[in-house]
Design brief:
The complex is a heterodimer. By secondary structure, chain A is mainly alpha-helical. Chain A contains eleven helices and two strands; from the N terminus they run H-H-H-H-E-E-H-H-H-H-H-H-H. In chain A, strands 1-2 form a two-stranded antiparallel ribbon. In chain B, strand 1 (about 5-15) and strand 2 form a beta hairpin. Classes of the chains: A mainly alpha, B alpha/beta.
């Protein structure tokens, strides 16, 4: 029983971070329809941001999320302006061809980021050590402080995102664009602005997730590749473009991984995940929260 | 303002080999209510799309006042004062009535508070204040159509385009919407109405434009247009023939 609770708790704690960077990916996809193959590398960037701020300025990743968030947002804006925007409305090119262009370009961004990181930091794993070292014993269930705090931050940031989507004008414009982009522009929503904001915010969430993840997860230049796959699975499970669905699916993905790792074999944790993923695709292809947004 | 509010000249929209709208010319005066009729596939909605910026004309120009509309993207056209509704309701389904209208109002309002106030104002005008906090997908069709009108009005349009508002509505709902359109036009809002129900067009329009296969075949006061033999043939031919018991 304790093992089961321990497994679930561990799954949920890591799942919150999956949920956060996946909500970034789904936000970007829901709005721009761009499948961002560089997404995992922005998690990596956030992690290196935490490492760098800690090593150079002694800044805890908990404070580091502020500069990392700002830098990630700006990076997202640059990637959108310089690369993504060019692929969105090219005259005389079909949507399918444009999508091929996006795949190649975001993949190029991914390769670029991981190799620049390799050049700067080298291939060996780096970590922010000893920031939140405590381990709590709650009725026999062990909870690492770093994991708990990271989860709480992910949850808070996600709730802020949710509130912003519900309450602010940009949020309403984003939701309207996800629902019916042509109609949104006909009531005066400038698609370019909405694309730019959602892309940058999506990257910002991802960078923040990486930053707090660094408190307990060592980083190498290629760490992001694994997270990319997890983010794709999570986003599809949650329903494409469904931000709440992505966060909930993130928690599920964390749990499935942990359950497989503990009860089957650690090395098979992703196999367990993909098995469940295939089941979801067969039974609920529209996503687990068969959201209204999934049909949009 | 000198001259007509809307001036459409030589408007042609081609989709590949299909000419949906073919060399259409018309104007709409300030405060006028123009009805557009025509059989299915006549190009009415395509013409609306072109005027609203959703479809780029193959050739021809569209002007509102002195401003060129054709070639501009929809979000710019909305700011120039052209607002529209859709035959198949296209509200933001998961949002409340207030959110739908506020988002639209924010295009012409400097702040969120001003946009909210504008949304309240429009809701009051249409008698929908009580519905503000309801998600639109939970509303009956007739109310959804009114929300479409409200969302369009929130833009403070100079020109309102209404695409088959009456489809799917019963008698009393139709009366209700006709009342709303008359009221708005009576307050000076220039309006173009596409409608299948001829009774509605006859009652509302100052002037009627008839399209058939993308070509403008008649234009004039409603009574005259209805007597035009080309219109009877193109638009009423089948049903008129059926009414007379003749083979189609």
């Amino acid at each position: 029983m304790t093992t089961l609770v321990q497994t679930l708790v561990s799954g949920i704690l890591v799942g919150g971070l999956y949920g956060l960077f996946s909500s970034g990916l789904t936000l970007i996809f829901g709005i721009t329809r761009v499948i961002n193959f560089a997404h995992g590398d922005f998690v990596t960037l956030g992690m290196y941001g935490a490492v760098l701020l800690f090593a150079s300025a002694g800044l805890s990743p908990l404070i580091g999320i502020v500069p990392v968030a700002i830098i990630s947002f700006v990076l997202g804006l640059i990637v959108y302006r310089v690369i993504v925007r060019r692929t969105l409305s090219v005259k005389g090119i079909s949507a399918v061809d444009a999508q091929h262009g996006q795949l190649v370009l975001t993949l190029a961004v991914s390769i670029l980021i991981s190799n620049v990181l390799l050049m700067i930091f080298g291939p060996s794993p780096q970590a922010v050590q000893g920031v939140l070292p405590a381990v709590y014993d709650v009725f026999g269930v062990y909870i690492a402080q770093a994991r708990l705090v990271s989860f709480v931050i992910a949850l808070v940031v996600f709730l802020l995102l949710y509130l912003a989507l519900q309450r602010t004008l940009y949020g309403k414009a984003i939701r309207a664009t996800v629902d019916d982009r042509d109609m949104a522009s006909m009531v005066g929503v400038d698609p370019d602005k909405v694309y730019a904001v959602s892309f940058s915010v999506g990257i910002m969430l991802t960078g923040v997730a990486g930053c707090v993840l660094a408190t307990y997860y060592p980083v190498t230049p290629t760490t992001g590749a694994g997270f990319l796959i997890i983010a794709f699975v999570t986003v599809v499970m949650g329903g494409l473009g469904n931000v709440v669905g992505a966060f909930v699916a993130g928690l599920l993905v964390g749990i499935i991984q942990q359950v497989t790792a503990i009860y089957v074999a650690v090395d098979l944790q992703d196999v367990g995940l993909f098995l469940v993923f295939v089941l979801v695709l067969v039974l609920r292809p529209q996503g687990i929260l068969s959201g209204r947004r999934a049909s949009a | 303002m000198a001259g007509p509010l809307l001036r459409v000249e030589g408007l042609t929209v081609r989709f590949g080999g299909l000419v949906a709208v073919n060399d259409v010319h018309f104007t709409v005066d300030d405060g006028e209510l123009l009805g557009i009729i025509g059989p299915n596939g006549a190009g009415k909605t395509t013409m609306f799309n072109a005027v609203a910026g959703a479809v780029r004309p193959t050739s021809g120009t569209i002007r509102i006042g002195d401003e060129l509309v054709s070639g501009k993207p929809p979000e710019r056209v909305a700011r120039l004062g052209i607002a529209r509704t859709f035959q198949s309701v296209r509200l933001f389904k998961a949002m409340t009535v207030a959110e739908n209208v506020t988002l639209s109002a924010s295009t012409v309002c400097p702040s969120m508070a001003a946009a909210r106030a504008r949304a309240d104002e429009v809701a009051e005008l249409l008698g929908m204040t009580a519905l503000q906090q309801i998600r639109v997908e939970e509303l009956p069709l007739a109310d959804q159509k009114k929300v479409e009108i409200a969302r369009a009005l929130a833009l403070r349009p100079k020109l309102l385009l209404l695409d088959e508002m009456m489809s799917g509505l019963n008698q009393s709902e139709t009366r209700d919407i006709i009342g709303v359109i008359k009221q708005l036009n009576g307050d000076g809002l220039t309006t173009i109405v596409i409608e299948h129900v001829l009774r509605v067009i006859m009652e509302l329009s100052h002037r009627v434009l008839v399209l058939d296969h993308g070509v403008q075949i008649a234009e004039g006061p409603p009574r005259d247009v209805m007597r035009d033999p080309r219109v009877v043939e193109a638009y009423l031919g089948r049903s008129a023939a059926q009414n007379l018991g003749e083979p189609a």
